[in-house]
Amino acid sequence: MRIGFIGAGKAGCSLGKYFSEAGGRAGLIVSGYYSLEEADAAWAASFTSSQCFTSLGEAVQGSDAIIVSTPDGAVTKVWESLRQEQLSGKMICHLSGSLSSDVFSGVEETGADPISIHPLFAFSNRESVYRQLYEASFTLEGHPRAVSLWQEAFAALGNGAVPIRQALKGKYHAAASLLSNHVLAVLSAGYELLEECGFSAREAREFSRILVKKNVENAISDGCVSALTGPIERGDTGTVRKHLAELCEEQQELYRACGRKLVSLAVKKHPDQNYDSMKELLFD
Q1: Interatomic CA distance for residues 17 and 39, integer angstroms
Q2: What backbone torsions phi and psi does residue 231 show, to the nearest 5 degrees?
Q3: CA distance 8 to 3
Q4: Which of 18, 61, 100, 272 could share a disulfide with 166, CB 3.0–4.6 Å?
């Protein structure tokens, strides 16, 4: 399957490089890149040892699958141009976690199969993170034929690939954001508190490294309920009250929001323990 990319950002370049290095065993070939910024397409083509397309038509003609790897807000605009091309027998894809394949409106009239392919992965750059894609998982949503082909391809690459219903894309993407970006919000708040205690930013991160790493590893291996520790689990309202007294309003809001979720985990872990006093403290 020859794969052409429309857009040469972090996700498109990283995925293309991954396919160019590992795709042989799955029958994947990167045909090339097209971008409104020709310099970006040229860089991506060089990076992946593929072609720099000079038009959408050239990209479509040279590819079996077209992956729209632009920001979410540009997908519809790109599609309006793409649908003017000869797409019969092609696969039209995008990489958005929040958008479903129905963003390709009227695709059935073109004879193409639509699919959304979302890597559950944070692309921090376009030069090196592709090396981590060997361990990434993907969700697939769209035409059954396209979903089946991509599921087989990812299986050959060694990646997990799970089909998801179109109606659940929004909820799925919310989950991905909580597990990725929102975790950073909690980490940032914790690091800031350590800095207020006199740690440098670097010291704060290094000092808490094992605590953060092992907590996440325990949650992944054993589940969040089993991994739960701390004053909320113990029902220690005195300590939680002291914590809240040390925090500014914004920090209190985050602490209480997370704390309320921790109470629900604690109840599952210790169903016979009474957490009413803790709930009153955190739900105030």
Answers
A1: 17
A2: -65, -30
A3: 13
A4: 100
Which SS3 state, helix, strand or coil, does residue 253 take?
A: helix
145 in the same domain as 27: yes
User: Rounded to two decimals, what is the model's pTM?
Assistant: 0.86
For residue range 70-126, what is the model confidence (pLDDT) as tens digits?
Answer: 999 999 999 999 999 999 999 999 999 999 999 999 999 999 999 999 999 989 899
Report the alpha-carbon distance of residue 269 to residue 156 in Å, rounded. Answer: 39
Residues 154, 216: one domain?
no
Inter-axis angle of helices 249-269 and 237-246, nearest 10: 160
Which two three-digit tokens encode residue 72? 């979410």
Which residue shows structure tokens 């440098």? 200
Q: What confidence tens digit (pLDDT) does each residue in 172-193 have?
A: 999 999 999 999 999 999 999 9
Q: Which two tokens stand for residue 89?
A: 């027998």
Is residue 183 domain-shared with residue 271, that is, in the same domain?
Answer: yes
Q: How far apart are CA 240 and CA 256, in angstroms?
A: 10
**Domain containing 223 — which CATH number?**
1.10.1040
- Which residues form the domain of 231? 171-282
**In terms of C-beta density within 10 A (0-12 exposed, 13-18 middle, 19 or more buried), how is residue 60 classed?**
buried
CA distance between the termini of the chain: 57
Judgement on whether residues 81 and 184 belong to the same structural domain of the protein:
no
Distances (CA, A) of 268 to 15, 88, 180, 273, 274: 40, 53, 24, 10, 12
The single-letter code of the amino acid at 279 is K
Q: Angle formed by the axes of helices 183-196 and 249-269, to 10°?
A: 120
Reading across the β-sheet that carries 51-52, which strands appear in turn? 51-52, 29-34, 2-6, 65-68, 91-94, 113-119, 137-142, 160-163
